[in-house]
């Protein structure tokens, strides 16, 4: 196991590459979902504003 | 076949399709990437020259591959949008840009991390590295240009021109290792008749490339939903989406 983690002396290079990749992939999902949610909220607000003004 | 194609041009249909496919694409891509990572880190033998350091290829090469193929999708979507006035093609292009930029960033940084032990330097102004860096700047330029417009339709048209012009960079990246034989090694995999890599090293790489492609589609599906909503905010069917997904209490929160 230690041998595997040491990566033949290349540990810091191999693990930082894989770690960074994982980070970028997760960030892609998180940012895309956040953006979707904010677009939904914006549209919903716009709709309630529109309804509010038509009531008057 | 044609009805299927026409349905793709219908915003609510594409929206629903993306909604249904996104979770499947994501979980299949996670599974394929996990298998590829296990194969690359555990099962593949160390390289005879680079030892275990070569394993960076399993994240570097697929990222570099995606950086270019996503750009190709973006430019194709932009061209279709301009020529046939298909707003959903623009939506695909706009949704792809940030994903492509993130893979370009990943290709550059993992390349630098790989370069340090193998070449003795993080960065050189080698043709491959420089053209890939330019690709990142084109992605940034595309997104920055879009951000300057308030109207989605204007952003679509202007950024599409940029995306199409930027296509010239793709063959430069691809052939850079052939045209200028500098530091970056030549391709190992794309010589299909005779790939210079052994099977037990190759299959995890193919899994990673396939997994990254599926992952792109998963993120694209989610981003595409946002882009469709932005373009269709006045449409009736959006009211249904909002009613179904967001009860009033959640909206105000």
Radius of gyration of chain A: 23 Å
Return residue spans of chain B where pLDDT drops below 50 for at least 5 consecutive residues: 249-253
Global mean pLDDT of chain B: 90
Shape summary of chain A: rod-shaped
Main sheet specs of chain A: none
Total number of helices of chain A: 2
- What is the number of beta strands of chain A? 0
Quaternary structure type: heterodimer
Morphology of chain B: globular
- Tell me the distance between the termini of chain B: 44 Å
What's the tally of helices of chain B? Answer: 10
Largest interface: A-B, 31 and 43 residues
Residue windows where pLDDT falls under 50 for at least 5 positions of chain A: none
Average pLDDT reading of chain A: 89
Structural class of chain A: mainly alpha
Please provide the ordered H/E string of secondary-structure elements of chain B. Answer: HHHHHHHHHH
How large a portion of the residues of chain B is in β-strands, by DSSP E? Answer: under 5%
The main sheet of chain B comes to: none
